[in-house]
Specification:
By secondary structure, this protein is of the alpha/beta class. The protein folds into 2 domains: 200 residues, 3-Layer(aba) Sandwich (Isopropylmalate Dehydrogenase), CATH 3.40.718.10; 120 residues, 3-Layer(aba) Sandwich (Isopropylmalate Dehydrogenase). A 12-stranded mixed β-sheet has the order 3-4-2-1-5-12-11-6-7-10-8-9. The radius of gyration is 20 Å and the shape is globular.
């Protein structure tokens, strides 16, 4: 009889001087996490041990031997770096820290692509750090997509009450509007639909598509992107059996989704979609990259340099990201 093992998760430590190591030490040893997955930190042993002492974590922090399987009760680390703690001061990005932060992401992505791990869960980094490390991408989403050879990905932020997928992400508002066309919106809806069917156990996800302009254009009085770009994209998806509707006024659709009328909202721009999401799920939202050939979730917050080293950072978002990645990996196995 085959033994069914729990999914193994590659947890990138994030910036050594940020709160990533602290929240990892708070989240990973919990019995609730041990019951659903086997996490392994891709990071630095000395930094993780410093964080464990800081938050008074009872679990031992140990290097995972090559080829070994992680077992509960220990924070297992795949040592990608061996930093001097002087190179990882709290509350700032350093050149050595920036370089190894990028290496954590590369190593974790390679292991998930090879099948050695089941999913990636990322702790926070800074755009400044990626730039220092010579990475030509503004964030995890674009960096991991490039390593996976994924041409088109969609960022979604998700909580229990609201999920928002974004047609455009880390560009200026002016550039975001210029980028919007029917193929982009259609692709965003299709990737979202496929993701929910495969990983979220939703046979026919209800996708609400938000407009771009006030009142969804008010019949063309406030802009024509709804009729010229968004509506044709929705119609093309509906023709293939996707349950997408809209475009809805952006100032009201999130209220309806919050009350259960939809499974996910597709928003045209970053802040229009994430402002309501973060109002509701500031501490426990999960950042998910849809359209990758691997599973990737992330905390929905930054490095919090202002509180790094103070042992006050909350692990809620990381716990949610671990739970979601474990659930997605389990669903993918069943599928």
């Amino acid at each position: 009889m085959r033994v069914v093992t729990l999914p193994t998760l590659a947890v990138t430590m994030g910036e050594p001087g940020g709160v990533g190591p602290e929240i990892a030490c708070r989240a990973l040893p919990s019995p609730g996490i041990a019951a659903i997955c086997r996490p392994v930190v891709y990071g630095d042993l000395a930094v993780m041990r410093r964080a464990a002492a800081l938050v008074e974590c009872d679990a031992s922090v140990e290097p995972l031997p090559p080829g070994a399987d992680p077992v509960p009760g220990t924070i297992w680390v795949r040592p990608v770096s061996a930093l001097e703690l002087s190179d990882a001061p709290f509350g700032k990005t350093t050149l050595p820290g920036a370089f190894v932060t990028a290496e954590y992401i590369r190593a974790a992505t390679a292991d998930v692509l090879s099948g050695a791990m089941d999913a990636i869960v990322t702790c926070p980094i800074t755009k400044e750090g990626l730039k220092l490390a010579g990475v030509p991408h503004p964030g995890h989403t674009e960096f991991i997509a490039q390593m996976c050879g994924a041409d088109h990905v969609v960022m979604m932020l998700a909580g229990d009450r609201l999920r928002v997928a974004l047609a455009t992400i880390h560009v200026s508002l002016r550039d975001a509007i210029a980028l919007l066309d029917a193929p982009l919106v259609e692709r965003t809806i299709r990737i979202t639909d496929a993701f929910f069917r495969k990983y979220m156990g939703t046979a026919s996800p209800r996708i609400a598509v938000a407009g771009l302009n006030p009142h969804a254009g008010e019949g063309g009085l406030f802009g024509d992107e709804e009729s010229a770009v968004i509506s044709p994209a929705i119609a093309a998806c509906v023709k293939d059996g996707i349950l997408a509707t809209g475009p809805y006024p952006p100032d009201t659709i999130f209220h309806r989704a919050y009350h259960g009328r939809f499974d996910v909202v597709v928003a045209m721009t970053h802040d229009v979609g994430l402002a309501p999401l973060k109002l509701i799920h500031f501490d426990d939202a999960v950042n998910v990259t849809m359209g990758l050939p691997v599973i990737r979730t992330s905390v929905d917050h930054g490095t919090a340099f202002d509180i790094a080293g103070k042992a006050v950072a909350k692990p809620d978002s990381l716990v949610a990201a671990l739970r979601m990645a474990a659930g997605m990996a389990t669903s993918a196995r069943k599928g």
